[in-house]
Amino acid sequence: MQVFIPRRLHYAVGTEFREVRHEVLLELSGNIVLLGEAGGGKTRLTEWLGDAEA
What we know:
Layout: E1 8-13, E2 16-21, H1 42-53
Antiparallel strand pairs: 1-2
C-alpha cells in the first residue's frame, strides 16, 4: 500500500524564499522542477500530480 504524505514545499523567486502546500502546484502554469534529497518523496509527488490532473 502506498501512502501519500502531504508536503510543504519551499521555492525561491529571485532572492525571496517562499513556502507553500503541495496542492498549490496544481494552480501553477508552466513547467515545474522538483529537486530534493533522495527518499524525499519526489516520485510520489509527481504521481500525485499526474493522478490529480487525470
